[in-house]
Request: fold
Amino acid sequence: MLAALTMGSGARAADLSPDNPFAKPSALPFELPPFDRIHDQDYAPAFKAGMALQLAEIANIAGNPEPATFDNTVVAMERSGELLNRVNLAFSNLISANSDDALLTLETDITPKLAAHEDEIYLNAKLFARIDALYDQRDRLQLDPESRQLLERYHIDFLRAGARLGAAEQRKLRRLNQQIAALTTKFRQNVLKAGSSGAIVVDDVAQLDGLSPEQLSSAAAAARERKLPGHWLIALQNTTTQPWLAQLKNRALRERIYRASIERARGGKYDNTVVITRLVRARAERARLLGYASYAAYALEDQTAQDPAAAEKLLQQIGDAALRAARRDAAELQQLAGFAPQPWDWQYYAEQLRRQRYDFDDARIKPYFELNRVIEDGVFYAAHELYGLNFRERHDLPVYEPDVRVFEVSDADGSPLALFLGDYYARDGKQGGAWMDNFVNQSTLLGQKAVVANHLNFPKPEPGEPTLLSFDDVIALFHEFGHALHGMLSNVRYPYLSGTSVPNDFVEYPSQFNEMWAREPAVVAHFARHYQTGEPLPAALLEQVIASQQFDEGFRALEYVEAALTDLAIHQLPAEGVPAADQLLAFESTALKTRGLDYAPIPPRYHFPYFLHIFSNDYAARYYSYLWSEVLARDTGAWIHAHGGLTRANGEVLRAKILSRGRSEEPQLLFRDFYGGPPDVGPLIEYRRLQ
Ligand SMILES: [Zn+2]
Reply:
C-alpha cells in the first residue's frame, strides 16, 4: 500500500538519467554517497527530479480518495522525497566542506526553489485537512508514543506555516514573509559593509606595540589589499569586543577600535537601526497573525524552554552569578591597571593577569595532544567506555577528499551501527570553524543507519610531521564528536525525528556534554601522552590548562547573557511597542538595567545593529539557546559524576534516555526523565567557576 503511494503518477524520476549518482540509493555500505561518481553537474538535475517526484508523491497523498489514516498520510509523507533528500544531504554537506564556484552558483539558484518547494507542501490545503483530521482523532488512533509525536510535529509545523489561516490572511502572511526575508538580507549586507568600512587604519607601527610579528604582517597585507601601502589595517570581528584589544598596549588605539566596533551600522550609509525596527515589527505582526502573544512566544513554543519567561529566568540566574564574578575580577584588574577598566581595557588587563597566573605557553602543551592519539585514545576511547562502541578504519570506501578518514562503528555485540567520517584539516573550499553533518539519517522505517561527519579546520602539517593540538582544539574534537554520537546512536523509526533533529536549545546539549571527557582524568591519562617520548601529561600542567580556560568566565558569561536578554526583550514587544530607530540602544540598556545586569565595563556581546544571529540568522529570540543547552550538559556531567563517572552503566542510561531518542519524545520530557527534575544552573556555575 505504501510502496504504491510513493510512486508518483505525474512526474517520475524517469527524467533523471539512471547514470546520475543520486538516481538510486547508494549501493555502498551504509548507503554512503558514491563520492567517486558525483560531479558538480549531477546536482541540478537530481534536485529538479527530486522536487518534482516529491510533489507528485504529496499530490497522491493529498488526493487519496480513502479517508486519512496515519499510514496513508503521515507515514507516506515520511517516505516521500527520498531522492530529494539524498541529493540535498550530499549537497548541503559538501557546499560547506568542499565547495567550488559551480556549487556556490547552484546554491544561489537552488535555495529559493527549495523554500518554494516547502511552501507547496505546507500550504497544501487538502494535505493539511488530512493531517488536521488525524490530529483531532489522535486519542483514538492507538498510536505508539513515537508515532503520536510525529503526528503532533507535522500538525504544529503546518500551523506554524499558516495552514489554518484564511486566504486573505495567508496572503498577508506571505507578504510579511517576503518582507522579513528582504529585511534580514539587507541587515546582513549592511553588517558586512559597515564592518569592512569600519576597519581601523593605523599609519604608525609604533601604535601597534603588543602585536606579534605574524599579526603585524597580516595587518600590513590587509592594508595593501585596500591600496593603503605603508599602513596597517585592523579588521572588525563580529563581536563587540575585538580580539586584538587583549594585546594592544596603546590605550587610545584600543578605545578607537572599540568605538568603531560598537558604532557599526548605527546611522550613516549602512544604518541598520531602521531595518531592525521594521523587521521586529514585521515579526511581531506575523506572530500575532498566527495567534501568538509575541514573536518570542512563537519562537520558543517549539523549543525546550517553551516560553520566554523560562529562558529569562535561567539567564537571570546565570547573569547574576556572572556579574558577581565579573565585579571581583574587575577589582583585580583595577589594581593591576591603576584605574577602573573601561570596556576597551578589560581584555588587555585580563590577558596580563592570565599570564601572571598561569605561566605556560601552548608550545609546552601541544606535544601531549597529537591529533590521531586524541581521536583514537581519547574521543573513541570515551565512547567505547561509555557506550561500548568499537571503531575500525576503512580504506576501501570512496571519499570526497583524500584526507577524509572513514570509520565503521559497531556496537558492543559487534553489530554494525554507523559510518563516521573525520574531516580534520583546513583547505580551500572548506568553511571555517567546526561542525557536524549527516549524510544519511538513521531511520528504521527506511532501514537506514547513520552516516555522519565531523569537520574541523586544523592546519595540515608538512608530510611526516605530527598534527599537534591546543587544548581548545581537543575540546572542539570532543564537542563535535558529541554531535556525531547523537546522530549515530539514534534509534528511532521516523527520519523526521532522527538524531540531531531537535530544537536549537537542545542540539548543543550532547556536544557540550561530551566536552567534559576532554578534562576528565581517566580519559586524559589515556590520550595525553607526549608524541615523542610517550610520557603522560603531568597532572599539575593539566590543572593549569583547565584553570586558565576558566579564567575570565565572568566576562564571557555576562556579555553573552546581556545579548541573550536584549534579544528576548525586543522580540516580546507588540508591533506598536517597537521603539523608534533612534531609541533602540536606549531600549537595550533599559532592558539590562531593569534586570540589574547593566555593567558598563562589560557591554553585550552584540549590540543590535550588528547582531546577526537574531536579525539575519535563525536565532531570533533564541540566542539564549546555547547557554540553555549548556545547562543541560553540565547537569548531565554532575549526574555522571554522582553515579561513578566513566562507566558502561552510565553510558547505557544516557544512551537509552537521551542519545538514542532523537525527537521521538519532547526533549524537555526526555531530559526530565533522565535527570529526575528540571534543569538546574548550579552545575554550570560550578563548571565555569562563576560562584
Ligand atoms: Zn556544536
